[in-house]
Design goal:
The protein has about 300 residues and is of the alpha/beta class. It contains twelve helices and 14 strands. Strands 6-5-1-9-10-11-12-13-14 form a nine-stranded mixed beta sheet, sandwiched between helices. Strand 5 (about 70-75), helix 4 (about 80-95) and strand 6 form a beta-alpha-beta unit. The relative contact order is 0.15.
Length: about 300
């Protein structure tokens, strides 16, 4: 297997809203907020659902890799309930091997409300459900050992059981990549993330805000110097400025695609990471890998949701 992803197994519920919905509900545009089941249901009760799809950041990347023809798998915790079944079937339809045996849990399968405002930005409200309860017993070590690259998401990292699951996976892996996921995630776990990036990861994916926050950078040059110092591959998306990959003394850039009809930015970073990893596992250059990532992300932002249609 080329890439095994481990992440939050979450069903995405996509809704279009006006800007005032974001402010009235004390949400911050373009970020992700964790809520309990009651608050989640209250928000959802007033909305019209556009689409429901198996989601989760790393799962989206893994599906992108499968669509590019790579042999991939995923581990994520779901409950044996209606959404859990939908989730598993959604992955299987995309030729992704699912290395998790679902069972009845006290807590239901996780869901994420993706709110798309008229400017195409997406704001997420997540009820993690059982996804956030992943523990080391949920990690299939043989699947980890049999994959070329293990791909993790920062969203999953949390003190206690998820952290143990993370460590067990990393300790059994051949190569490890991780996405920093979200600015709030970075700020909540900064010392831990910094230690992981410096000492555990081979490849780090981040956007400009996330990586600058992680190292308390004043300017982007600080990020380049940091990447060179730690001698790891760091891949950064920079919105309209495109993307950059820094590995040892090699720096490659790829500009963003122009004149796109942007509908929804959900999944842009996920599909970029999927495309980039496709390049790496197929022995492409950094430049070619950045180009595949950019191609994938530019396609997904022109449709609703984080999955490209076949």
């Amino acid at each position: 297997m080329k890439v095994l992803g481990i992440g939050n197994a979450i069903v995405d519920v996509i809704c279009k809203v006006e800007d005032k919905f974001i402010t009235q509900n004390n949400l911050i545009k373009s970020t992700m907020k964790l809520v309990d089941e009651t608050e989640f249901k209250k928000l959802l009760s007033t909305l019209k659902i556009e689409e429901t799809v198996s989601g989760g950041s790393v799962a989206n990347s893994i599906v992108g890799l499968s669509q590019l023809g790579d042999d991939v798998g995923f581990i994520g915790k779901v409950c044996d309930d209606d959404l859990g079944k939908k989730y598993e079937n959604g992955l299987k339809k995309e030729n992704v091997s699912f290395f998790y045996s679902k069972k009845k849990e006290k807590i239901p399968t996780g869901t994420c409300l993706i709110l798309i405002t008229p400017d195409s930005e997406r704001t997420m409200v997540t009820f993690l459900g059982t996804a956030g309860k992943i523990n080391e017993n949920d990690i299939d070590t043989s699947a980890v050992k049999n994959s070329n690259i293990l791909f993790l998401e920062g969203y999953l990292w949390d003190e206690g059981e998820p952290k143990k699951a993370f460590e067990k996976a990393i300790n059994n892996s051949n190569r490890v990549a991780m996405s920093l996921s979200d600015l709030f995630c970075v700020e909540r776990h900064k010392p831990h993330f910094l230690e992981i990036v410096k000492n555990k990861l081979d490849i780090t994916f981040a956007n400009e805000q996330e990586i600058m926050s992680l190292i308390d950078a004043k300017k982007f040059d600080d990020v380049i110097n940091f990447a060179k110092e730690i001698n790891k591959l760091i891949v950064i998306t920079r919105g309209e400025k495109g993307a950059i990959a820094i590995s040892k003394n090699e720096i490659q850039e790829c500009s963003a695609k122009k004149n796109l009809r942007i509908i929804d930015l959900t999944g842009a970073g996920d599909l970029f990471a999927g495309g980039f990893l496709h390049g790496i596992i197929n022995k492409k250059s950094l430049k070619e890998s950045l180009e595949t990532g950019t191609e994938m992300s530019s396609k997904v932002i022109q449709i609703i949701g984080a999955r490209l249609k076949k």
